[in-house]
Amino acid sequence: MLSKWQIYQTLSRAGLGSAAIRLENHFTQKYDFADLTDESIKSYSEPTDEGYVLIPLTRGQDGLNSFRYCILAHAFRTRGYTPIIPLCHADLDLCQRKTCEKDGKAVCDVCNYAGRSLLSAFGLEGIPIESLLSETYGAPEVDTTLETYRGISVADYAMSSTRRFLLRHSIDFEDSYHRETYLRFLRSAVILVDMCEALFEQYPFDAVLAHDDRYVHGGIHLAVAQKHGVTSYSHALGRREGTILFGNAGNRSSLPFFTDYDTLQTELAEPLSASEERRVEDIMTARTEGSDVRINYSARTNNSFDSSADCTVGIFTNLIWDASLEVEELVFPDVLDWIDDTVEHVSSVDGVQFVLKTHPAETKFGTDESVEGRIRDGHDPLPDNLEILSPNTDVDTYALIRDLDAGIVYNSTVGLEMAYEGVPTIVAGDTHYRDLGFTFDPETQDEYFRLLGNIRDLEMDEEMIARAKRYVHVYFEQKHVDFPFFKTQSAGDNEYFKVEHDEVKPGNENFDFIVRKILADEPVLR
Question: Looking at domain 263-478, what is its CATH homologous superfamily?
């Protein structure tokens, strides 16, 4: 007997996929989002003659991301800016909605229908990507030697997207599935570059907003905007529940966690007020308890690692396929080299117990390249002074931090949390809190290994601890902007709240602030 998905696939191949989805929705209301908005939003028709904002939804069925795009589009619309919203319908060769089990037009039919239904609930319309390209358009041929296209580094976005799709960092072009996946993302990147160039010829954009800035479906739009000198911002859900983050794509990193260096230096030069000190304490207590975090990664057991050594050092790895790990010119451009070289080196550090804690997200989101497995397979036997904690360990990250004498990270948020607690922290990769005066930030591998060899001697002075606390206030308080339209039940499971026009229209302090800062090309810091 055919599964529902197989039936969808058959109907989609016959050109009946959208009709089948409409019929299903008629009986199930699975893709009916009318209850998410009020009538004032659905019927909004005020003039929008102030300018244009590119808000590339692209993937219609993208959960909270799609919901966030629509809310931001309405915020700009109510302030006189026309949102231009490209929407894909099988126009791109590959995206994260597809998997090896569900890779066909049926996926695209469902995704597009869900996107159009959500846009309709907001009184918005998407523009088919196909309509933005010429009738005779055909994507150029691509191969693994293609690095840039029309001035955009398409290979970087294709590689990041491939790693995320395959849930692994190591990509082998000798593997036919790896290579074909990469080439499909590369073709998608090229198509999006051509689409964006067509859009920029047609509209004098005032701003561009996109999420997933390191991946094909978001990063390409921001890169083309930067090429044309147009204000562009990445955005993402915050680390705290019910918040949103914005990052200027012109920063040293387009990731939404980053703020420009000059602004941070100004902020960190000023001592915190008594009320700001209390707010920082409240935020960090809530993170420790898990009461104000969007996704709980740490075990809440209060269990630590039992070490009898005089000096215990924590090493914290990342979800290995995450694009935030991809840097070009720092100490270890490849995170796997950092892991391997660090494991090799720890055995030469006398009198120190190292505890390497792998990221819990490996269990929550999955991985095809286990950090623990890689270390155990590649370093047999393990150094006597190294203990590895699995992603599902019952060791509580925050209890462990309290027992550490020093810490090492590539770019994990744990590095900031250790510095806040006064734990000397070495940063080996690129992160939003690097080079701000409260972590140890080597510029070369020789310097990194010297710090590692002398890690028992590292200390944080009072000014370093004070700067760490000030940055916690900047990052977790000033940079996190209230966005109270959802609640995260667990990773991938969210509750949506109805959006009222009065919560978004001009006069709402929150959205007045967001729109004003973006149009002024200023840091979105409260």
Answer: Glycogen Phosphorylase B; (3.40.50.2000)
